[in-house]
Amino acid sequence: MADILTPALGESVTEATIAKWTKKVGDAVKKDELLVELETDKVSLEVAAPADGVLGAINAAEGDTVVPGTVLGSVTEGGAAAAAAPASAPAKTAKAEAKAAPAAAASSIDITVPVMGESVAEGSMGKWLKKSGDAVKKDELLVEIETDKVAVEVSAPADGVLTIAADEGATVTPGQKIGSVSGSGAAASAPAAAAPAPAAAPANTGSAQVSGGKNDTLSPAVQRVVAENNLDPKAIAATGPKGNITKADAIAAIGQAAPAPAAAAAAPSAPRAVGPREERVKMTRLRQTIARRLKESQNTAAQLTTFNEVDMTNVMALRAQYKEVFEKRHGVKLGFMSFFTKAVVAALHEIPAVNAEIDGTDIIYKNHYDIGVAVGTEKGLVVPVLRDADTLSLAGIEKGIGALGKAARDGALTMDQLQGGTFTITNGGTYGSLMSTPILNAPQSGILGMHNIVQRPMAINGEVKIRPMMYLALSYDHRIVDGKEAVTFLVRIKELLEDPQRALLDL
C-alpha cells in the first residue's frame, strides 16, 4: 500500500484546501495519474498517484484543510489489473461469483481521524450516529470529534457496513483509526432492507425518522433542537455542506413547521418527566479550554475595567433612515456591530497600546486590525476573527460578522478563523446584560463590552430628555495600557458613536 501525501506547498505556505478528487475509492489508477487538486492562498497544486493500483482510501474530503505531509489517502498496489480484469474476461458463472464473494467481503476501508488544524494534537470522540453492523452511505455523517477549538465531522468513506473501533469519549489523534467500513456491506444489506419487515421498514425508507424525539442521522446538537421543539426532520430545509441539517436549520424551522406527528400525538397524555436532583456531566474539551484560558488570562494580566456610556440616538436614527436602502444595495442588514467595529478601529489607530500584546519582556505593536467577535454557541463561547477590519466598509463588516456567526453556530469554523485576533468585541446586550466586566482574550490587551440599550432620562442642554443609552466597558491589561490611554480610547469610541459621521469622514 502506498500513501498519497500532501507535498511541500512552497515558501510561507503552511496549509491547503482539497479542491477536487478525480477518482473515487475502488477506482483503478496508474502511477503519476492525477488524483487530487489542492488550492492554497497562492497557487493550485496537483497530486498524482504514487503507484499503479486501486484507490483504497480517501482520508481528506473535498473542502478539508491539510498541511504538508498529511496522508490524503492510499493506493493498494497491484490492484489495477485485478480491477480491470472483469471488463475483458468472459462472464463468470454464478458458482464462480459465489466463490469470489468471500474475498470481496474481506475488504474494508479505514475511518481515520482527519487533520484537525494547526497546534491541535488530539480530540475527543463524540456520539456515534450509527452503531457497529449498521449499513452506511458514502459521505453520511458518522461522528463528531471535538477538539479544544472546533468540532470536526467524520463521514463514511464509502457505502458499506460500519465497524466502530473508538468509543464515545475516547481521546484520539490525527491519522488514528476509529473504525472501518466494509466495502461489500452495502450490497449485503440491500436484500434485508428490501425484504418485508414491518417493524424495521420505516428505518430503511431513506427519510429522516424520529424515534423517541431523536433522529439517529442528525448531529447531537440538531437532535436536541428537534426533540425539544417537536420538529419533524423531514420538514426542515437542509443547508449543510453535505446536505445535512445544521443546528441553524433546525432553529430556523421552529415555529414554521408542524410538530412531528408522533411527538404531537404523544404530547397530551405524556406525563411530565422528573429528572434527578443532580447530574454529573463531563466538561467538553471546548468548555475545558474556555475555563483554562479565562483563568490563565486572569492570572497573567493586570486586568482593569473602565466604563462609559454612549447615547445611541444618532446611530439608531441613521440605521432607521437607511436600513431598507442598505439591505437592498448590499444584501445584508445594517446592524450596530459595523458602527462599533469602525469606531474601535479608529480608536486603535490613535491608542496603539490597546492593539498590542506582551511577549516576555517585549511589546509587540500590531499594524493590522483583526477584530475578534465573541459568539455564544450551544457548546460555549468562541471568538472568530474578522480580518483586516480597517479595510472593510460597513457592508463588508456586516457580511463578515454574519458569515462568522453562522459558521460558529453550525460548528463549521476553521482554525484560521479562530486565531490571530488583535482586539475583541463582546456584546452582552444580546442577552439583556446592562453592565459587565469582560475578561481579556489573551494575549490581547483589550476587550470592549457592549450592553443593552435602555431608555433613560438624561440632562441635555439643561433639559431632561429620554435617550437610548448603552454602557460600554473596556477591560485592559494595565501592564501595557495606562489608565489615561484606556479612558481616552473609550471616550474616542463614545464620540464616534454619538456622531457617526465623524467615523465615515475619518475625523
Euclidean distance between termini CA atoms: 65 Å
Strand-residue fraction? 25-35%
Total beta strand runs = 27
How would you state the average pLDDT, rounded? 79
In the CATH scheme, what's the topology name of the largest domain? Chloramphenicol Acetyltransferase
CATH architecture of the largest domain: 2-Layer Sandwich
> How many separate helices?
12
Structural class from helices and strands?
A: alpha+beta
Could you give me the name of the CATH homologous superfamily of the largest domain? Chloramphenicol acetyltransferase-like domain
- What composes the largest sheet? 7 strands, mixed
Low-confidence spans: pLDDT under 50, at least 5 residues? 80-106, 185-216, 262-266
User: What CATH first level of the largest domain would be assigned?
Assistant: Alpha Beta
Rough shape?
globular
Number of domains: 4
* Helix content estimate: 25-40%
Domain Lipoyl-binding: 1-76, 108-182
Keywords: Acyltransferase, Lipoyl, Transferase, Tricarboxylic acid cycle
Function: E2 component of the 2-oxoglutarate dehydrogenase (OGDH) complex which catalyzes the second step in the conversion of 2-oxoglutarate to succinyl-CoA and CO(2).
Pfam families: 2-oxoacid_dh, Biotin_lipoyl, E3_binding
